[in-house]
Amino acid sequence: MKPITWMVGGQQGDGFSSSGETFALGLSRLGYCIYGYFTNSSRIIGGHANYRVRISPYESLANADEIDILVAFDKETVDVNIDKLRDGGVILCDTSLDIELPENHSVQLIQVPIMKTAEELGTKLVKNMVAVGASAALVNVKPDVFLSIMAQRFERKGEKVVQMNTEAIQKGYDYVMENVTLKQDLSLPDVPQSKRMLMTGNDAIGLGAVTAGCRAMYAYPITPATDIMEYLAKKLPQLGGIVLQTEDEIGAINMTIGSAYAGARTMTATSGPGFALMMEAVGLAGMTETPLVIVNTQRGGPSTGLPTKHEQSDLFSALYGNHGEIPKIVLAPSTAEECYYDTIRAFNLAETYQCPVVLLTDLALSQATQSVNYIEPEPPQIERGKLKPLPHKADIDVEALESQAPETRYEQFKRFEDAEDGVSPRVLPGTPQGLHHVTGVEHSEVGRPSEDKVNRKKMMGKRLRKMEHVKVSNGVEVQGNQESDLLVIAWGSSKGVIREAIERVQEQGYNITHAHVKVVLPFPTEELKPYIEGTQHILFIENNGTGQLSALTHQLINDLPESKNLLKYDGEPFYPLEIETKLREMKEWQQRSKTSVTM
Amino acid sequence: MATTFKDFRNDVKPNWCPGCGHFSIQAAIQRAAAKQDLNPEHLAVVSGIGCSGRISGYVNAYGFHGVHGRALPVAQGVKLANPELTVIASGGDGDGYAIGMGHTIHAMRRNIDMTYIVMDNQVYGLTKGQTSPRSRKGFMTKSTPSGAMEKQTQPMQLALSSGVGFLAQGFSGDLKGIVSLIEKGIQHKGFSLINIFSPCVTYNKVNTYDFFKENIIKLEDEEAYDPSNLGMAMQKLIEHNGLVTGVIYQDHEPSFTDQIPDFDDNPIVHQDLNLSSEKIKGLVDEFC
To answer: Do the beta carbons of residue B247 and residue B219 sit within 8 Å?
Structure first.
C-alpha cells in the first residue's frame, strides 16, 4: 500500500484539531505509522489552519506531495487546499456547506450531516468526532479503537460526555457506511499491531529530560518550544523538581546556570529570538565551565520572522552566537526518537565536559507528530563526569569542621585545575573543603580574576582543549555506498523526506548516498570524509537561504567535489517532489558534464 | 565554637579605591554571616558586574561572579536547586536598577528566600564615571556632560509596589546599622532587598559621606514608625525623597518554595536522578 494522507482543516481555535489527534492516535494504535503536521498562523482564533495526517504501513517521516482525503469544517479549507488534493481524492464536509468544485476535476465530494448529527446529540462540540467516525468509514477502519480513546479521554468528565462522543463517532461511521459509495477504494489494509508511541519532538525532549534526571527547568514561552516547558510543568513537580516561567529568556538561562552550578540537572528551551537573547550567558557557562543544556527549536527568522513556520537557519548562531571562544557541543537530532536519546545524551555530555550543549531542532521536528518505536522503560545511563558527591548539610560534622586549622578548612579548591583533558574536578557549593570562586572574568585555577598573560594562555588552552577530547557518537547517519554518483548532505527533520525522494529516483539506476549530519559540533569530519572522497558531486539540502551546513562543510573539509545547494525558506518543510525534481536535474546535469568532458 | 567574621575573610585584596563605601559593606556581610552563625561552606555569594561585583571573590564562601545585571536569576537558580544554602546576591545600582531592573522587580514578586544587597553609589565607577539610573537629574558625568536629563529611579518605592517582603536601606558610613539590616535580611524567610548608600569617592562628588550624614533620616528615630504598614512606608519615602535608613517594610507572606509542599526539605541536588523502570514505563505509555 502507498501511504494515505488525510487532512482536516477549519478556523484556528475551532477545536477541529481534536479530530486530527484522535484519528492519528487511533490509527497508531492499530499499527500504522503516523506523521502528523500542523499548519497554523500566529494568532489564537480565526484564520485557516489545518492538520494533515499521513498514514503508512512503514515509517514515513514526511508530508506527502498530495492529500487523498480533505475533511473541511468550512469553505475556506476547501478553497485553500483543493489544489493539494490528488486526482480522485475525496472532500468530506457538512451538508450545509456550499462547495463549488472547479471544472474538469476528478474530486469526489461527500457531504455528511455533521452539524445536524452533533446538535441532535446535544452539543456542536462533538462535530469533530462525527468527522472522525466518517473518516474511519472512508478508510474502512472499524470505529472501535476511536471509541476506546473517547472512553479513556473523557472518563473523568463522566458517563454522559463519553456517551456523546462515542455516539458521535458511531453515527458518523454509520452514515458513510450506509449512504456513500466511494469512486476509488481508500481502504487501509490490515497491518500487524506493534507497540508504538505517537509523539512530537518536543514531547520526546520533555520525556528524555525527565528520564535523564532533569529536575529544574526555566523558560519563557515562545513558539515552537513552549510545549517542552508545558510538559515538564506537569511532570517535574511530581518528582520533587520545579518548572518556572521566568520574566525573559535571559532570566531563564541565568537561572538554569545557577541551578546547574549548585548541582541540579537543569535545562532551558527556546527558539531563535530567545536564543539570541541568551548568548551572553552561553559564554558565561563556557567560561565558568557550568554544565548547560539549551534546546533551540528553530523557526522562521530573522527577527520575529515566521513564528509558526519551519526553518533551519540558526546553525551559525548555535555555533558562533556567543562572543569569544568556548568549548560547546551542538546536537541536531532528525527524528522524535533521536530527540529522546539526544536529550539524555545532552545532559551526560554537559556534565562530562562541563560546557554548554545545544540541542538544535526545527519546527517540523518539534511539532510534527510521529510514530516512534516503543521506548523500552530502562533507566538510562546517567554520567555526571568529574563531579564530587555533595554531602547533606545535616550529615556534616560541624565540630570536626570547626576544629580544622583555617588553612586546611579554607584551602581553595582548584575548580579550574589545568587538567590534561581540559575537564577539571567539580565540587558543588555546600561541600566542605571545596571553597572556590567562579567567574565569567578570566581567572586562575581557583577562580580568582586574573589578566595575567601566562595564566590567560593556560586557561584558554585548558578550556578549548576539551574539544580535542569530546567524543560524540553517531555524528552522521549514512544511507548508501561509499562510492556514489551524488552525495546528499542534510540535517534536522528533513531526513525522512530526503529518503523518500531518493527512493523514487534510485529506482532508475542513479547511485545516491545520503549523509545526514546529526552532530554539528564537534563536526563529524572523519566520518564524512570517505563518502565525500567517494562521490562525484554533492548536493546540500537545507531549509535556509544561505546554505549554512554547506558553508560549514566547505570550511572544515578541504577539496570538496563541486557542490550545489537546494534551499527552501518559505516556511514549509520540503515535499518529496521538490527534492525528487532537484535530484533528476542533478542527474541530467551530471550526465551533460560527463558528455562534454568526453567530447 | 561558632564562626567569627574572620572565617569569612580571605587573602584577596579588594581592587576598590581607598575610601570606597564598598569596604564597609564587605565587612558588614562578613560580620552578619558570623553573627547568624553561618558556615562559609553553606553560603553562596552571587554577584554582578562592576566594582561591587567583585564582592563574590572577597568573601570567604562559595562565590559566583556572573554577567552584568544577571546576579539575581543565577542566585535564585542556586537557591531553588539547593535550599540548604544561604544565598546572598550583591551588585551595584547599575546592575540592579538599570540592566537588571526586570529581574529585580520579578525577584521581589517571586519571593524566593534570599538576600539582595545593592551597593548604591549613584554612578558607574568601573567604567570610569558615567550616569546611573540612581544619578539625580542634572548630575554631570562623562556620558551626560550637560547633566543627566532623566529623573532618578526610586527603587525603594518601586520595591514596595512590586510586592517586596523585606525592604531595608542603609548607609555604609554606619557599619553597625548595616550589619543589623543584613542579619534581618538573612533571617527573613523570603526575598529581601537591602539598598545601601555606598559613596564613590572617585566619581561622585555629590552623594558623598557628608551628603548622606546631613540628609539621611533614621526610621528608628521616627515616632511610631510601623514597618508593616505599606502606606506609611511609601509616605516616608516620598516625604524624604528616599533618603531614609532602617527597615522600611516587612511582611510575612509565604516564600515561593513555602508554597510547594516538602520542597525545601527535599533539595533537588540531593535527589536520586534514577527513575524506576516502572515510573519510566508510566511516562512512556502516556504516548501510546
So the answer is: yes
Residues of chain B positioned with their CB less than 8 A from the CB of A34: none
Report how far residue B153's alpha carbon sits from residue B69's, in angstroms, rounded to the nearest whole number: 16
* Grid coordinates belonging to A126: 462533538
Nearest to B81 by CA among B55, B46, B109, B105: B46
Task: Pinpoint the alpha helices (H) of A489-575.
Answer: 495-506, 525-533, 548-556
Alpha carbon separation from A304 to A39, A222, A276, A365 (Å, rounded): 18, 11, 11, 20
Q: Looking at the DSSP assignment, which residues form a beta bridge with residue A32?
A: none
Q: For residue A522, is the peptide bond before it cis, meaning its omega torsion is within 30 degrees of 0?
A: yes
Buried b or exposed e, range A400-411, using 16+ CB within 10 angstroms: ebeeeeeeebbe
Report the alpha-carbon distance of residue A175 to residue A132 in Å, rounded: 12
Residue pair A241/B102 in contact by the 8 Å Cβ criterion: no
Determine the Cα–Cα distance for residues B194 and B180; give it in Å rounded to an integer: 11
**A213: chain B residues, CB-CB within 8 Å:** 273-275
Q: Which amino acid is at A43?
A: R
For residue A448, the chain B residues in CB contact (below 8 A) are 12, 57
Q: Report, as an integer, the average pLDDT of B229-235.
A: 98
Say how far apart CA B23 and CA A113 lie, in whole Å: 81
Could you give the CA distance from residue A257 to residue A293 in angstroms, rounded to a whole number? 9
pLDDT in tens, A89-109: 999 999 999 998 888 889 999
Q: Does A251 touch chain B (CB under 8 A)?
A: yes
Chain A residue with the nearest C-alpha to that of B65: A439
Say if residue A142 is exposed, middle or buried (CB neighbours under 10 Å; 0-12, 13-18, 19+): exposed
The whole-model pTM stands at: 0.97
What is the 3-state composition of chain B as percent helix, strand, coil, each rounded to the nearest 5? 40, 15, 45
Q: Nearest Cβ partner of A390 from B65, B269, B275?
A: B269
What integer is the mean pLDDT of A243-268?
A: 98
Q: Residue B71: CB partners within 8 Å, gap ≥ 6?
A: B46, B47, B48, B53, B89, B90, B91, B95, B96, B100, B116
What is the 8-class DSSP label of residue A538? E
Q: List residues bridging with A4 in a β-sheet.
A: A55
**Cα dihedral: A580, A581, A587, A593 (round 10):** -150
A240 vs B contacts (CB less than 8 Å):
262-263, 266, 268, 271
A294: burial class by Cβ within 10 Å (0-12, 13-18, 19+)? buried
Cβ partners under 8 Å of residue A12, min gap 6: A40, A41, A43, A44, A45, A46, A47, A48, A49
d(CA B67, CA A259): 16
pLDDT digits (tens, 9 = 90+) for A448-478: 999 999 999 999 999 999 999 999 999 999 9
Before A224, cis peptide (omega within 30)? yes
Which residues have CB under 8 Å from A434's CB, separation 6+?
A: A388, A413, A427, A428, B41, B62
**The C-alpha cell of B172 is what?**
555604609
